[in-house]
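User: Can you recover a sequence for this backbone? Please restate the input before giving your answer.

Assistant: Of course. Working from this structure:
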């Protein structure tokens, strides 16, 4: 077995059954000077896709694991948004940027460029490559991006707002996120313009990642019974007669019945791959083929097949040659042992990821809701180092206990500086005597129950709870394993736990933690509220100044420790394995998983 370690980390594919997409993120970069790129450029040793030089698409097929069925071309609806659906659709679309291996924002200049023309007020100009076009030959233009804005800004009553109490017209997973920041929408000279600007009414610290790959406005217009120009006018005038028809198709017209390849007239693409005709067998696989209309670097291999294989069967499928690359969810010591038995036939890459495990207290009710001393007593008995040593280091020998939430241990000086300014190491080691003192000071009684809730089944989390129980029951707590299959649907949102055990999946977003730790955050399930944290998030999210981001991040982290919002445990270990006959399989710590650069994979000659 060939083992390669990464300078950053390896991504672990995740589903909503195990964790939620949000949270910790590395800091953004400084605003570019005139003429500089707004994102990290590719290099052989950097976080972005290295330039492979001239590429000729080779015949053949590469097969990769994907644990769930493909759902639809539009992956931005609640019905289709999942790690597994995105694994397919991200091969179909191009955009101005993509996530690098360490959460960096990488530029795709073959698609277009963008830069901030001014900081106050914030104005960002986007310029599309003249060759950028849909696979049906229609150019990618301003019209596509105006529609993209409308799907995240217009309510069913024809208003432009980010008020969460208003019902959105389009069923977009992001809701009404753009109405308040860019109330006038993107501006351009004409519907077919290749350049447009975003004029911000207030600053968004994450402006670099706010504009994503769009869907085809010309298809939506046709399905709404109007021309592309008429759709643009309807959006600008908030003409609900047209927009309701457009939204009806956008919301439902791209959902795919299992096994039915969508009509190519309705699903043109801008990425290196396209759907293969008759390439989908429900519950078994879906195959993409190289997009011969793609203007950028072509896909290195003609066909890419996503096979629906559960984590428990992926290693055997790799051994049999039924898969060429796998990204097993929640790798364990047994996973590594099984791969070792395959010898040099496979290449394995391991490391930390941008997904992190944590224990969260319930501030809405129960013994921890209004007692810092009770929370401290529990934190002092949680054996964090033992959990890492026993469960994580066998997979990633360089794993460490995590002492922050918004930055990760593998991010070097940024992590070290944040921790140095916010945490004094008080919970690094188990201290049962100190825990007992806090237990008594909190007025708790022997046998006080602590239900730790998490999504079942999950053997690793069951082992974590067992380790916590072995330690904390000595203090006077009675820890109960309260795992449930419907934990995320029922127990977590209803606050039916004392401590919640799950993971957040990070990215490169600067401000997504605000949705978790602020008093009004939609993902603040534990009902935590702190004025200092709220104010710091407001300052952080309303500026593009990296120094302010770093300063406020320390304030947030320190207050979360001092009030003991919860207990971070570790960055998830990631593991990918691929056939040694396949080249350019490269790991990432970000959410894209093993397939993030699949268009570069090729069979070794």
């Amino acid at each position: 077995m060939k083992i390669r370690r990464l300078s950053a980390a390896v991504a672990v594919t995740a589903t909503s059954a195990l964790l939620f997409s949000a949270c910790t993120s590395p800091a953004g970069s400084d605003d570019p000077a005139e003429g500089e790129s707004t994102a990290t450029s590719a290099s052989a040793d950097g976080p972005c896709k290295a330039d492979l030089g001239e590429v000729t698409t080779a015949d053949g097929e590469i097969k990769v694991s994907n644990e769930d069925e493909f759902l639809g071309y539009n992956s931005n609806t609640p019905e289709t948004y999942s790690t597994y659906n995105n694994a397919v659709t991200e091969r179909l679309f191009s955009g101005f940027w993509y996530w690098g291996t360490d959460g960096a924002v990488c530029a795709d200049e073959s698609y277009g460029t963008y830069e901030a023309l001014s900081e106050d007020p914030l104005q960002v100009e986007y310029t599309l490559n003249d060759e950028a076009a849909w696979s049906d030959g229609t150019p990618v233009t301003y019209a596509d991006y105006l529609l993209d804005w409308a799907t995240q800004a217009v309510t069913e009553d024809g208003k432009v707002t980010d008020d969460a109490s208003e019902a959105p017209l389009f069923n977009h997973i992001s809701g009404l996120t753009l109405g308040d920041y860019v109330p006038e929408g993107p501006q351009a000279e004409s519907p077919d313009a290749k350049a447009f600007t975003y004029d911000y009414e207030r600053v968004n610290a994450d402006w670099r990642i706010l504009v994503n790959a769009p869907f085809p406005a010309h298809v939506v217009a046709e399905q709404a019974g109007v021309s592309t120009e008429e759709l643009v006018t309807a959006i600008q005038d908030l003409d609900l007669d047209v927009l309701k028809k457009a939204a009806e198709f956008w919301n439902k017209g791209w959902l795919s019945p299992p096994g039915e390849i969508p009509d190519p007239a309705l699903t043109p693409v801008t990425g290196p791959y396209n759907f293969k005709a008759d390439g989908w067998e429900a519950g078994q696989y879906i195959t993409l083929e190289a997009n011969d209309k793609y203007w950028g670097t072509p896909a290195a291999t003609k066909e890419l097949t996503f096979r629906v294989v559960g984590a428990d069967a992926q290693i055997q499928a790799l051994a049999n040659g039924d898969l060429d690359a796998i990204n097993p969810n929640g790798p364990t010591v047994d996973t590594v042992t099984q791969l070792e038995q395959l010898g040099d036939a496979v290449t394995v890459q391991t490391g930390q990821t941008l997904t992190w495990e944590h224990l969260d207290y319930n501030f809405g009710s129960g013994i921890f809701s209004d007692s810092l001393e009770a929370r401290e007593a529990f934190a002092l008995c949680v054996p964090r180092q033992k959990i890492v040593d026993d469960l994580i280091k066998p997979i990633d020998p360089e794993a460490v206990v995590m002492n922050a939430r918004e930055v990760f241990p593998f991010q070097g000086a940024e992590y070290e500086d944040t921790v140095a300014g916010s945490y004094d190491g008080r919970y690094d080691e188990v201290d049962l005597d100190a825990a007992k003192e806090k237990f008594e000071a909190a007025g708790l009684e022997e046998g006080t129950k602590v239900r730790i809730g998490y999504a079942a089944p999950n053997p690793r989390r069951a082992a974590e709870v067992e380790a916590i129980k072995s330690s904390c029951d000595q203090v006077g707590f009675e820890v109960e394993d309260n795992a449930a299959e419907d934990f995320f649907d029922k127990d977590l949102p209803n606050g039916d736990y004392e401590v919640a055990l799950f993971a957040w999946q990070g990215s490169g977003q600067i401000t997504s933690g605000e949705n978790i730790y602020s008093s009004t955050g939609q993902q603040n399930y534990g009902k935590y509220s702190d004025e200092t944290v709220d104010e710091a998030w407001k300052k952080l999210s309303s500026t593009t100044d990296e120094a302010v981001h770093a300063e406020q991040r320390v304030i947030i982290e320190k207050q979360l420790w001092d009030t003991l919002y919860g207990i971070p445990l570790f960055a998830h270990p990631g593991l990918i394995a691929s056939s040694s006959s396949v080249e350019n399989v490269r790991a990432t710590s970000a959410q894209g998983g093993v397939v993030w650069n699949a268009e570069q994979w090729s069979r070794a000659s």
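That completes the design. The CA atoms of residues 68 and 324 lie 17 Å apart.
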